[in-house]
UniProtKB/TrEMBL annotation:
Name of the protein in its database record: Protein lin-10
Keyword Repeat: yes
Region (Disordered): 1-73
Stored SMART domains: PDZ, PTB
GO BP term (any one): chemical synaptic transmission
Stretches assigned to the PID domain: 85-231
Entries under CDD domains matching the protein: PDZ1_APBA1_3-like, PDZ2_APBA1_3-like, PTB_X11
Short name of one Pfam family: PDZ
Any one annotated GO CC term: dendritic spine
Ribonucleoprotein is among the record's keywords: no
Length: 447
């Protein structure tokens, strides 16, 4: 039997090693050996577009047909965006090693992907260990970053990726592993069995993640051709796309709002010792000009509300002189909770409306907006794309599109409206948590 190790995220409160499917389990992050950048398969991946016989990207639906929560519009990235990099939020479930002999067919690869899933995915009804990660995809590499710890867990050169499988809400990423001698004098083993490491991720955007990696290979190939004097006009010219990017502007001049010191205000909140501040805070959203926290709700009789100087939508820059910019939400919450023993709390805030206004300039539908929507919520954003330049933020609920409310509009209609809109597209958004609190869909938990 195969005794390849399986790496899975550790559950809180468990020891570093536990049983899982009868195999050895090691705590993430996964140690991935450095790999040489050339071999026959790499040349094939870079030298050929996706084909039925030797495709490097595949997708498979779960038994029962339709995939849940899929956007109908395929996400096609501009070359300039993929060269710079695309970021997706996902859950890392674990990794395992598989033997890789000869030149496997597409069907063999899919069977290997399913084998990796069977080893790592917890049985129905059991708790699935996972770690929130950011998946960075570019024409150069694929990186996995721990969202909470801000650490790089994995870093694979794109050319070492041999297969990507999209199975329902799961993405299986397969990378070649090579023998790296522990000692300089260690002779290479000629008959050593090549192995492949398989990482398994879960995301509502599994299809888009797989597509993006496939497109990264295509763009890398096009860049290779361009460097050798061969042009392919099926892609939008890079300069043409750059002109569209340069035309974007942050609506309401948000940059000025945060850059000017006079726009910030110091708020002193008097309170009783042992009394909570009485606020709910949420993340400003990836893509915002300043990564900090936003006041999403105020307890009606709480200390923050009584002072009369704070409003829903205000961004908190610092508390008692400690900057909150760039810190995880949980850390910011702890700073606020720790002020419970104080009788005075000093906040530095930038007054903002709860609704963010976004203006995107799109001259033609051939220019991808650069974000995806699920049930009215912006769930991914292309770094450096049109939408990011215009101020669109991940995790925000779209309230209006071109002065038309979309709060009660079906998902398909929102996608169609965005896919077909050209010219100036005006949107109003707010953090999803704030929207749910304000509409009574969630009960506020004040801190």
């Amino acid at each position: 039997p195969d005794t390849s190790p399986i790496w899975i995220p550790r559950r809180k409160g468990t020891s570093a090693t536990s049983e899982h499917s009868g195999d050895e389990v090691t705590v993430s992050p996964v140690p991935v050996a450095d790999e040489p950048d050339t071999d026959l398969e790499t040349d094939r991946l870079l030298g050929q577009q996706r084909t039925d016989d030797h495709g490097f990207y595949d997708e498979k639906e779960k038994e029962g047909g339709k995939k849940k929560g899929r956007n109908k519009e395929a996400m096609i990235h501009e070359p300039a965006v993929l060269i710079e990099g695309v970021l997706f939020r996902a859950r890392y479930l674990g990794s395992t090693q598989l033997v890789c002999e000869g030149q496997p067919t597409k069907s063999t690869r899919m069977m290997q992907a399913e084998e990796a899933v069977s080893r790592i995915k917890a049985p129905e009804g059991e708790t699935q260990p996972s770690t929130e990660v950011d998946l960075f995809i570019s024409t150069e590499k694929i990186m996995v970053l721990n969202t909470d710890l801000k650490e790089i867990m994995m870093d694979h050169a794109l050319r070492t990726i041999s297969y990507i499988a999209d199975i329902g809400d799961l993405v299986v990423l397969m990378a070649r592993r090579r023998f790296v001698p522990h000692e300089v004098d260690d002779p290479p083993k000629i008959n050593r069995t090549p192995k492949m490491i398989c990482h398994v991720f879960e995301s509502e955007e599994a299809q888009f993640i797989a597509q993006s990696i496939g497109q990264a290979f295509q763009v890398a190939y096009m860049e290779f051709l361009k460097a050798n004097g061969i042009e392919d006009h099926s892609f939008v010219k890079e300069m043409d796309y750059q002109e569209v990017l340069n035309s974007q502007e942050i609506f309401g001049d948000e940059l000025q709002m945060f850059a000017k010191k006079e726009m910030q205000k110091e708020v002193v909140v008097p309170k009783a010792k042992g009394e909570i501040l009485g606020v709910v805070i949420v993340e400003s959203g990836w893509g915002s000009m300043l990564p900090t926290v936003v006041i999403a709700n105020l307890a009606p009789a709480g200390a923050a509300a009584r002072c009369g100087q704070l409003n829903i939508g205000d961004q908190i820059i610092a508390i008692n002189g400690v900057s909150l910019v760039g810190l995880p939400l949980s850390t910011c919450q702890n700073y606020i909770k720790n002020s419970k023993t104080q009788t005075v709390v000093k906040l530095t805030v930038v007054p903002c409306a709860p609704v963010v206004e976004v203006k995107i300039k799109r001259p033609d539908t051939k220019y991808q907006l650069g974000f995806s929507v699920q049930n009215g919520v912006i769930c991914s954003l292309l770094r450096g794309g049109i939408a990011e330049r215009g101020g669109v933020r991940v995790g925000h609920r779209i309230i209006e599109i071109n002065n038309q409310s979309v709060v009660a509009v079906p998902h398909e209609k929102i996608v169609n409206l965005l896919a077909t809109s050209v010219g100036e597209i005006l949107m109003k958004t707010m953090p999803t948590s704030m929207f749910r609190l304000l509409t009574g869909q969630e009960t506020p938990v004040y801190i």
